[in-house]
Structure formats: structure tokens, C-alpha cells
Amino acid sequence: MDKQLKVYLNLISKFLEKEECPEIEIDFDPYSLNSHGGYRIYCNGKYIALPIDISKPLEQFMESIGGELDTEIGDSEVYTHQVRINTKDRTLTVVSYYTIYGEDGPYEEYSEDENTIKACEQFIKDGYTGVLTFDFHGGGDSGYVEEIGRSNTSDGNVNLNKLADDVCYSLLSYYGGWEINEGSQGQIYFDLDKKMATIELTWNTEEAGEEEQGVWHF
């Protein structure tokens, strides 16, 4: 950290102490390293203007350490670098944010209603036996059930009939939002001997992860 940036940081720290603002956060694009602020900052529930614009000095600092900053953490890309300026201990901390992808489930529901029985009987009429499995996928505000499935008793494809298609979407209706945002995926099973259908749904999850890149004193 060069002397000029230290001077700037100490000046704004005195101002922020008067504003009773112990820490401020400024976000940076992880690729261009341009700041998303530096003059107006959020403090105590409102935006205030700093006495000096520190965007350029901070961007120059970020460029000077750019080679040391992670752009990927694990299997995820960094989507924001954040500079935290702490006025009490006179530190500048760089933290990187990335997305953690995960799953929640599976969750199960089943159906033995009249429509399910009719769907199973139609499968039997079509020559299928055993337990039939159909995959489904949801996300980004759309979702669908695969029209081609499989049987545990024979090779070859299984075609989803109209009655069974309605049963699939009826089971999916237990899970509001299964097709929205991160969405979900899973399987729907038709047990032809028991004349019942079972859904196994797993939610896709996203949460923010953060990793400290370094701490500098001024």
C-alpha cells in the first residue's frame, strides 16, 4: 500500500469516526477491478458523501495486488471483490465473494388417486411392466418432465402417456417454485403393480461464500 492511499484512508477515517461509521464497504468488479463506489457510501442506514473520492486510489491499489487475487474459488467464479475499511483498527481488508452450489433433499410425495390408477393401467395396456421412471428438471422459470422414461424390468424406452403426464405435474404442484430460479430436479416413479406414483425432488441451492484475500494496515 503506497503512502498516498494511506493518507487518503486516514483522512476519510477521521470523517467516518465523526459520522459514527466504524466500517465501510466498497465493491469491485473482479475482472476490470473498477469500483462500484468510492465517493458515496452506505453508513448507518443512509448514503453519505465522503469528503474525497477514493475510487481511483483504491482501483490503483486493487490493480497492484490483482495478480494475487483469486478469480475462482473451488469450482465457482468470484463475482465481487469487496474492500472493507475499518476506521477503528485502521485496516483495509479485501474479501472475495463467490457462489456455493448445493442440494437440499430429496423430498417425497406419492399418489394413489383415480388418475394415477388410470395412468398405471394405460402403461400396462401399452405393454410396460414393473416400475417406470421419468426424470424432471426445473430452473430459470421453466421446467419439464422427460417424455421418455425407463423400466426396471426391461430395456428400451418408455413413453409417457397423457394421463401419467398429468399425474407428474400434479405431484410437482406439491413443491411450489420447483421450476423457479435455481429450481430442482428428480424422478417420478410409477409402480404398475401397486398402481401408485412417487416423486423424489431435490432442490438446487445457491448461497454466497466469502474468502479473505488479505489485510493491510494504514
Radius of gyration: 28 Å
Mean pLDDT: 95
Low-confidence stretches: none
- By secondary-structure content and strand pairing, the structural class works out as alpha+beta
Strand content: 35-45%
The structural domain count equals 2
Percentage of residues assigned to helices: 10-25%
Can you tell me the overall shape?
Answer: rod-shaped
Largest sheet: 10 strands, antiparallel
User: In sequence order, what are the helices and strands, one letter per element?
Assistant: HEEEHEEEHEEEEHEE
Could you give the distance between the termini?
A: 8 Å
Number of strands: 12
**Total number of helices:** 4
In short:
The chain contains four helices and twelve strands, in the order H-E-E-E-H-E-E-E-H-E-E-E-E-H-E-E.
